[in-house]
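Hello, quick one for you while I still have it in my head. A protein chain has come my way and I'm curious about its shape. I'm sending you its amino acid sequence along with the backbone structure tokens. I'd be grateful if you could look everything over and explain what you see. Here's the protein in full, and shout if anything looks odd to you:
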Amino acid sequence: MTGVFKAKRDIAYLADGYGEIVAEGEATPGPGGTLLFRLQSVNLDQEGRSESKSGVLLLDASLQDVARLDRFLEQTTFINHALVFQEGFTLGQSRTYDVLDGSPPSQIKQWKQDWPIDARDRKFGERGVAYMTCQQELRPNEYVSTGIVYAGARQRCTMNAESEDGTTWQVRLRDGDTAQILGVLANGSVAGQVSVKESKAGQLVIWKKDQTTELLPWIPKDYCGSVQSATADMSRYAAFATCDDRSDNGRWLVLDRKSQTPLVNRLFPKNGRAALSPDGSRYASFESGELRIYSLPKPD
């Protein structure tokens, strides 16, 4: 509330879809402490046909250009927010990915990955990848691997982790459960959100090689939500929770991995935005036309 104005920058945005637009409507953390905007360029060629391009714009702390990359962004990594681009386009299972990190970004790695036919959610880390595979019961007691998802079919899913040297490990989920992978942590463990029948919220977990899965404190079971921002080691993380489409508000929660009681649990507008700081000591919100920054108890 007593901050000093540092910089201002306008990003071209045309609501009619012609010109340059912000693909996801807001900025996210980029590599090397940059601010990342995903852009879509929509133009007409000389014959009046629509042409579209995807790109990434990176800005520094003064909102000056760091780099613009006219490539479709596959994803960013969980820790360094490194950029992951698929090389070329293919519908096959063998694909090549370029990983760029730093400011300005440069290529640090190239992944050549042969995905299983039933690979689902896929996440890249700085030193490995993680992905879900799910077999489906198409006939009684007969589970098959297929690239088609059949509505209503029972599933048997497995979280697969692979390091850069090619070693792999797996964690089998309960029959019927599915999961979304949040990211690969620095120690090679994998953070994920498991969908279970007993809870709308599911379970937040850390899968570890040759160890018991760690269950993390999470939002109340009657709410729906996902991790919005987190520290690099998942010691603290934040979520917006709601399951009521009729309400203009939900709950903003900040949780600590070592405590079952949320650090923050407050009413929050659906049209607001909030994020946890990288060190977990503060969170910022934009609501009611104001940017607000709140202090949190110091992490242990």
Q: What stands out?
A: The CA atoms of residues 179 and 194 lie 4 Å apart. The chain has a mean pLDDT of 90. Residues 115-216 form one domain. The first strand starts at residue 19 and ends at 22.
